[in-house]
Amino acid sequence: MNPVILFDGECNFCDSSVQFIIKRDPKGLFHYASLQSEAGQELLKKYDVPADLDSMVLIEKDQAHYKSSAALRIARRLQGAWKLCYGFIIVPSFIRNSVYDFIAKNRYKWFGKKEESCMLPSPSVRKRFL
């Protein structure tokens, strides 16, 4: 199974992050589902992800990764110098996650929330969404 990224479908920052990943994932390794979707909800239950978790989730090799660990594991699979970000994995998770939590807590205030519109991906990208 390809790695799956679960993201907040109502968040502009999260949507931009998915677009960023898609552009740097030319082989189409990652698949995507919004946390609010039926597929997203099923995966959250299957991997016992806490209901109150405010994070992007990466499901990879039958394991769920959250917060900064998910972001860094995604970065190491991207094209270009983004792979180097994975080096931050050596920073203790409580430090990395405090930065992640600060951004997550303020993301709607800083970047806004989606109204009703959403991007219309190309057919090749669309098939990567669950």
TrEMBL record:
Pfam families: DCC1-like. One of its GO terms (molecular function) is protein-disulfide reductase activity. This is Thiol-disulfide oxidoreductase. Coiled coil: none annotated. InterPro entries: DCC1-like, DCC_oxidoreductase.
